[in-house]
Batch of 2 targets.
Target 1
Amino acid sequence: MSLVWAIMRRDMLASLRRGSEWSNPLIFFVMVCALFPLGIGPDPKQLAVLAPGILWVVALLASMLATDSLFRSDFDDASLEQVLLSGSPLFPQVLAKTLAHWCMTGLPLSLVSPLLGVLLQLPTSGMWALLLSLAIGTVVLSVIGAIGAALTVGLRKGGLLLSLIVLPLYIPVLIFGSSAVQTAVEGASYTPQLALLGALLLGAIALAPLAIGAALRISVDQ
Amino acid sequence: MYFESFAALISMEGHGPYVWFSYGVGIVVLASLLVAARRRRAQLEQMLKAAARREQQQNKAAVTGER
Amino acid sequence: MSFWTYFHKWGSPRWFYQFSGRLMPWLAIPAVVLLLGGFAWGLAFVPPDFKQGNSFRIIYLHVPASAVAMGAYMLMATAGAIHLIWRMKLAAMVMKSVAPVGAALTFLALLTGAVWGKPTWGTYWVWDARITSVLILFFLYLGILALQQAFENQEAAAKACAVLAIVGAVNIPIIYWSVEWWYSLHQPASIKFVGESTIHSSMLRPLIATLTGMYCFLGWMVLLNTRNEILYRERNTRWVKDVLTGAGS
C-alpha cells in the first residue's frame, strides 16, 4: 500500500511541476466544447438537448488524448524496463500510475465540467449527475486507456493508433455516463447508471492491470 | 423454381437491385479473400524458389572455384 | 498418445502444414457447394416472406456473414490466449490469419444489412442495437489490424494483438449488453422490425446450408493464410525447401 502511495505521490508531483500534463486536457475540453455552439448554432433549447452527449464525448476524447503520455516518459528514460526487471509485483504499481494519471486528468475534467455545462445550457438538474458520472466514468476511461497506452508506448506513431484501439472499448462508459446526465435532466433518478458505472469501474480495476502489465512487457521486450 | 420467368427472378418485384447488389458484393468479397490467399502463396513460392536457385548457384561456384 | 505429445504435435508448424493440406478439401468443397447451392436455393426456389417480400432473400448472405464474423473474433481471441499462455507459435499464425477474414465478413454483414434495410424498412441505416453492435465489432477488427501493422517486430505484433483480442473478447458481452440497454431507452416507436420470428421452415433450410458453408469458408481461408504464414516464417528450413521443390507434400 505504501508503494502505491509513493508512486502516486511521485507521479502527481512530477505532473504538477510540468504543468502541461494536467492543463492541456482541460484546455482541450474547454476549446472543443466551445466549438459546438459555433457548429450547430446558439439556440439554447437545441444546445440543452445535445449538452449531455457533447460534454461526455468531449471529456472522453480529452481523457483519451491525455492517456497517450501515461507510460511515455518512463519508457523513454528506461525506468519502466527497470521496474519490469526488478520482479516486484506489477499489479499495484500499474494501478498506482494509472490512478495518479486520473487524478491529474480525469478528476480536473470532472470538476470543471459543470462550468462547461453552464456554457452549453445544460439544465441545472443535470449538473450533479454530470460531475458524478464523469468522476466515476473517467477512472474507467483512464484504466482502459492505459491498456492501449501500454500496447503502443514502444511505437513511434502511437497517438492515432491508440484511439483506434481504445475507442470501441469506451462505448459502455459513454452510454451509461451520458444516460445518467440525460436521466437527471428529465428529472428521474440516475442512481442505476451510476451503479452500473461503478460496476464497470470495479471490473476494470480488477482485470485491466493484468492486461496493462502484459502489454508493458511486450512493449519493453520488442 | 419459385419465379415464373427469368425476368421475374432478376426483378424480384422491385427488390431485385438490392438483392442482386448484396449477393454481387458478397461474392466479390469472398472471392477476393480466396484470391488474396492464392496470390500470396504464389508470391511465396516464387520468392523461396528464387532463393533456392541462388543458393545452388553459389554452391556450384564455390565448388568450381576450389578446383 | 498422451495430451502433451498431442499438444506438442499441434504446435509443430511442419506437422500442421501437412495435416492442413489433407484437411483442406474437406472444408473447401463443402464451402463452395453449400454457399453457392444455398445462395441459389435462397435466391430462386424459396417463397418470399409475406411481410418483407423478396428483399428477405439477403438473409442467406447477411446472417451467415454476421454470425461467422462474431465466431471469427472468438476464434482469434482464443488463439491469442493460447499463444500468450503456452507460447505456441502456431496459435499466433492462426490469429493473424483470422483477422482479415473476420474484418471482411463484418464489413459484408454491415453492407448487406444496410442494403436489406432500404426496401424493407425504408432506410439504409438505423441505429438499431444489432446493427450498432456489428459496427462496433467492425471497429474492434480495425483496431487489431491497425495494431498488427504498426509493429515491425512480428513476435511483438502477435503478442500485442493477442492482448488486445482478449481485452476485446472480455468487453464484447459488456458492449453488446450496454448497446441493447441504450437502444431500449431510445427505441423509436415508428420503426417496427419484422424479424426472423416469422421465418418458415422451408426458408430455414437454405439458411442452415449457407451458415454451415460460411463456417467452412472461414476454416478454409484460415488454413490457407496460416499455411502461407508457416511457409514464410519457416522459409529457411529444409522441409519448406523440400515442399516447394516437390520432394514433399
Target 2
Amino acid sequence: MKNKQNAMIHKVSSLTRMLHLAFMLAVPPLYAQPQDTTKTVELNEIIISAKTGIHRDRQAKPNASVEEYLQTDGKVGMVKRGAYAWEPSINNMTTERISITIDGMKIFHACTDRMDPVTSYVETVNLSKVSLGSGFEANPNATNNIGGSLDLHLNRSGFCGDGFSANANSGYESNGNLWIYGADIAYANERFYLNSGYFHRNSGNYRAGGGETVRFSQFTKNNVFTNLGIVLKTGHELEGSVIYDRAADVGYPALAMDVATADGLITSLSYTRLFAGMALTKWETKVYYNNIVHIMDDTKRPPEEIVMHMDMPGESRTAGFYSTLSGNAGRHRFSLNWDGYANRSYAEMTMYPADPNEKTMFMLTWGDIRTLNTGLFFVDEYQFNHNHSLRLSAKGSFQRDGVNDKKYGWNTLQMFYPEMKQYKNRFTGNASARYRFRKDSWEANANAGYGSRAPSGSESYGYYLYNTFDAYYYLGNPNLKHESAIETGLSFAWKPGALELKAEASHFYFTGYIIGKIDPSLKNNGLHMNFGEEGVKVYQNIPHASLLNTSLLLKYRFLNFYTLNGKATYARGRDNESASLPLIAPFGYDVSLRFAGNRFVAEAGIAGAARQTDFNPEYGEDETKAYTVINLSAGYSFRVKKTVVNLNAGVENLFDTYYSTYADWKNIPRRGRNVFVNLKFNY
Amino acid sequence: MKTIQLFDKGVYAPVIFLLLALFISCEKDSEPEKQSTDPVEGLKKIHEFADDSHTVAAWNETGEFRLGYTKVYFTVQDKDGKYIDSAELNAFPEMDMGMMKHSTPRSEITKVEGKPLYEAYYNFLMYSGQGNGVWYYDLSYTVGNAAGSFDDVVIDVKNAFRPDGTTPVTIIKTFVGTDEKRYVVTLVEPLHPKVGVNDITAYIHESKSPEYPALEGSFTLKLDPRMPSMENHSSPNNVDLTWNAAEKIYRGKVNFSMTGYWKLNLILQDDSGNIIYGNAITDGIEASSLFFEVEF
C-alpha cells in the first residue's frame, strides 16, 4: 500500500522479471539499478498485485478495486460520484490534464458526464502495477498531460518456467453487501504463455457512517481477460491481450442518472524485439483497438425525482499504435517512442417530453468528435557518476480534431460559433529535465518542465454537458487555445538506516488555463434548460492559474517487524483572481503502523483531512468538514500442500464516522464502518 | 524466419489502415443535378381542368392546398400537350361561409423564369370545413387570343397539424394591432427545420377584406424561439425578421439547439419600434401572443 520507488522485492510480473534477468546477463548495468530495467523512465510505481504469495509486503486488502490501490499514492486522488468508477486525479488534476494508458494504449471514456474514467474498465486482476508519472515527467505514450500520467500494466504471466498455476479468490464486505469472486489460470514456459481469468464484483447500496443508506450506490461488474505470448525465436516475442469488462446496474448517488451498462473491449497485439549485447535493448511495437459503450439510465429512479426521462448513450472508440525503442549506451539510458491514435467520441441525448404526443428532443452532446494524434517522445537519463544524474525528456505531438457529424454536431455548434471550422490542426509538446543528487543517505531532486495540452473533446466540442456539481450546462469552445504550464519541483529525502524522510513540492504555473466560466451574453438568453440549474458555462482560457502540491513522507522500520508510515499532503490552486481552483485537496494525512511477519501481517491506520477552507462556490464547492477515520486489517498466509492460502480481514472506518471529502461529488457521504474478508488460493 | 521479417517491416500497414478507416468519413458529394426538361418534375398535381383548347393544372410539392402558406405552380398545355410559356393566369380564392365570404392573402400568378411554369402563393386563413366554410376559386387563363375560365372550382384546403397528426399547428395568425389595423402574419420557412441555423421567412399582410395588401418593408418581427417542454429553453444568436427587398419577404435566422417542439415567439414592430402586436417573454410570461409553432 505504498508507492514503490525502489521496490525490487515485489513479485511484479513474471515477464518483467524475466526481462530483468535477460538484461542482467546481456548488459551489466553501470550502477546497480534497483528496479525494472526494461523501463528507461524512472517513474513511481504502484504495485497492484493480486498474486500475493507468502510475503511480507503483500497487500492488506488484495481484492481492493483498482481505484483503491491507486489512491494509496500521495499524488493520486479520487473524485467520487458513487461507490463505483472513481475518477483519478494526479497532482490535483483530473481527466483533461492527465493521461491514462493501459500498457501504453490510449483509451478514452465514453460518458460525457465522466461517469466512466478509463480505470473503471479494468480490474485488479488485469493489472500488475501502475507507473505514475508526475507532471511532464510522464509515460512515453502520454499525450496532452500536464498533471501527470498513469500507465496501467497488464498482468501477464510472462515467459517463465512456471508451468501451470491457478488462483481463486473471493471476498466479502459487510457494508453494501459486496461480494467478490475471481479465478485465473496460467500456463507459462520459456517460449509460450497464456493466462486468462474472470472477476466479478457485486454490491448493493452502501451505508454512510451512522447507518444511513446511500441510495443508488449499487453496482455489478464482470471482467474477463486473456493474455497470450509466443516467443517466435529468441529475442522475438509476440504478445496479445483481450479484456472485456462489463459493469451493469451501476448507481451514481451524486448524479441524476445511473448506468444501465458500461462495456469496454480492450485489445492489443505487440511485437517485441529484444537485443542482446547491444546498445539497443528492446524494441516494442504495438497495435491496439478499444471500444467503450456507455448507456446511462434514469428508469430506476422514483418517477417523482425524474424531471424528464432521458436516454444518454455514449461511445468511444480508439485505434492506435506505438513503437518504443529502448537502450543503454555508456552512461545513458534512453528511450524513443512514436505513437499515434485515432479516437471517435459520440454521445446522444434524447429527452422525452411530458406530453407523449410531442416529438422527442434530440441532440448530440458529442457530435462524433474525432481526434487524430501522433507524437514523438524521447527520454534520456544520464548518470554522471554515483552522485549525479540528469534526466531529459521531450515530446512533440500533432493533433487534428473536429466534429464529424454535420447534421447534429457541427450545425449546432455553429449557432454559437458561426465561424467555426469543422476540423482543427494543433501542435503540442513538452520538455522536462530532472537533476538528481545522491550522496550517503541524502537524495535531492530538482525538476523543471514546460508543455502544453490541446483542449479535450468536451472542452472544445462538448454540447450542453450537464455538471451536477455546480448545476451548470457546459458548452465546448472550438476557439480555445492550448493550455500551457511551467512545472517546477523540488524534493529532499533523507534515509539514514531504518528511517526515511521525504519532503516534496511541485508547482505548476498555467497560462491559458481552461475552465468553464459563465458567459454573460448567454445567461439572460434563456439558454439554460432550467431544471433547477443555473445556466450555461462556456470553456474559456483564463489568463493564468497556479497549483502547488506538497507532501511529507515518513517511514520508520523498527524492531524487525514494524513499519511506521506517515504521509501528509497539502495543495493550493488559484485562478487569475486568486480564487481557489475546484477540487483541490485540503491538508490531509495518513499514518499507519504495520506489523509484517512472514505469515502474519497486521496494520492499523488513521487517515483524515483538515477542514477545506479553500473552496470556491463558483464551481459548486462548499466547505468540507475535517474528518478522521481509523482502519484495521490483518492477514495470515499458510500452505496446504502446494496451495498457498491467504486470508485477510479488516475493518475500515472503525468508528462508523459520517464524512465526505473535498472530492465527493455533491458531498455524498463515504462508506461507514465496513468489515471485509478476503480469501485467496494460489496454486 | 520469414514470419518475423514480415512483422519487422509490415507492422505499420495495419495501423495506418486502422487509422484511416476510423478517421476518414464516408460521406460522398451528392450527384450533379440533372438538367430536366420536365417543368413539373418533383411536383405533385393538385388538380387539372381542360376545355376545348387548353389544359390548366395546379401543382405543388405536396399535391394539396394547406392552411397557411401554400405555394402553387400552374401549367398550361395545348391540345398536343405542349407546355405554353406565354400564358396569363388568374385565380381568386374565396371562402363561402354562408353568412359571409372572404378571401385570403395571396400573390398574383407570375411566370417562373426560364420554365413554362407559373407560380403563386396563397396564405390560407382557414381550412376547408372550418366554420362550415367552402373554399373555391375561379381560374382563368389567356393564351394569345384564346382565353378560358374554370369557375367556382372547389378547392380542398387541408388543416395543418403537428407531427402527431391530430394537434393543429399555428403557422398563420390574424390579429388587430395597437394601431387598430388588422394584420395577417404567415410563416413561410422553415417548413422542414433542422437543428442548427435555419432561415426563417414570413409574410405580413394587412387585412382589408376582400383585399390583403402585402406590407413590404417598414416592419420588424422580433424573434424569440422557445421550447415550452424544456421549461422555455431558448437558443442563441437568432436574427429578427426584417424586410428583404430583393426577395420581397421578411427574412431572419432561427436556431434550434435540438429537435422537438419549438414556439417561435414574435413581436411585430413598426419602423419606429412601436409594438403593434406581441409581447416579450419575462419571468411570468412564457409566450408571446404572436407565435408560430414548429416541431421536428
